[in-house]
Give the backbone structure.
Amino acid sequence: MQFMLNDSDKAKLEFIFKMISSIEIIIERHKGIDQTIEDLEGQNAILICVLQIGETLNKLENAELRTSLPVK
């Protein structure tokens, strides 16, 4: 499925992918998800990324894109 995205939505999606990449790096640095979750700084780092993703998803302008993503 293809969507006609404006530059703002493209930038938002790029930011979301950057946050996902950051989560992967955080988990890798902690040698796995279990160690990440057990570490207070790891927990907080993941939480901030997830919050940023959620806020950005809610700001997408393309209604068709928003409804096709499992945002909730």
Remarks:
- The radius of gyration is 14 Å.
